[in-house]
Amino acid sequence: MSGSVLPAFAKILGKILLFVVIGVCFAATIVPRYLDRLYYAGPESGHFDGEHFANPDGDDDTIRPPGGGGRASFFWRYLTGSDGRPLWPDTVPIRAARSGDLLPPLPSTPTPVAASSAEVARTPMRVTWVGHASVLVQVPGFNILTDPVWAEKAGPLGFGPRRVARPGIALADLPRIDLVLVSHNHYDHLDLATLQTIWRRDRPMIVTSLGNDAILRSRGIPAVAADWRQWVAVRGRPQIAPARYWNDTIRVAVTRNHHWGSRWFTDRNRALWSSFVVHLPGGNVFFAGDTGFGDGRWPGEAAAFGPIRLALIPIGAFRFVPGQMSSGSHIGPIQAAEVRARLGATTAIPIHWGTFRLSYEQFRTPPALLKAVTACRGQRGFDMVRIGRPVDVAPYTPFRERGAAGLAGCLNTPAVRSLR
Predict the structure, then answer these.
(1) How far is CA 152 from CA 83, 161, 168, 381, in A?
(2) Torsion of CA 290, 293, 297, 299, to 10 degrees
């Protein structure tokens, strides 16, 4: 009996193994193609080869894993915490903004008033840092939200870095959003669940760069995608504002920065990354998105679209080995001060730090280093703001520095050396 059972069992086992092998072969063929989504199809350009986007100033610094070693080794050390990183707090106490802290909505039937250039220059602007790269920018009758992420973790399927600071505004307390800017498709910048909630509630215009609109459409979220150096006109809602605030159409320019994109391991650079310039009365708003320094010319390209009243510039996730001051994909405070100078921005607000732990600098290093660098350079108006604490932005005035030190000139000061 046992002699007849064993061959039958071996035959069944052989069939199972055959199906497993076939399944693995199919998976190896199908799964990468499934994950390697074709987000965009269009003509080739200086930064698109028909399949993948690229930085025209080179991609070597964004392809290599930060801190040296292989990519697998980097992720293993990061996930296991075996990289010698300093401790971060588990939670950071914040006081979230309420509706009374934000700019109030305009009357539903405003009386138009003729606008002088001086009145336009004094158009109020209030900004609330929600956390990481999420910022609420308000001018009368119009609300802009950048890279909205309210997720507890920044990653796929419930994995990824955990938020240590809760959002500075509860999602339910957000005012009506008119415009959303989405810089690229990394999970700490493109949060589909948050975007879906905002879209269903407010139906804002969502502007992004090429290919990211396909990701949003997969969840029923329409978006306008544009290439670098293209304008998108924002129509409709600005017309509810009094004429004294709006003497021109609100427009969004999609502008170059230096980064990369991926939602999975196999879809790298299928969608474009970008910064933005929003043309507003009283001066433009620049949002850097997520960026390394690259050739350093992209801030000047953004400034060419007009005077910048406010710049939102990242200062975190720059250190992956001791003493590191920037990585290919992220700028640190030293380069952030240079970016602000090249933009000529009257006011700059540091973002992209202190919310999700993405690198190895200590929790307070980015703002402390920024303070030391701006003091060295004689820059004013680039100061830390608290999550959830609205601040009023000064009117546009031409930018100037009071110090002589440039991009590398502050590296050897005692204040900067103490933070290396």
Answers:
(1) 23, 9, 13, 31
(2) 40
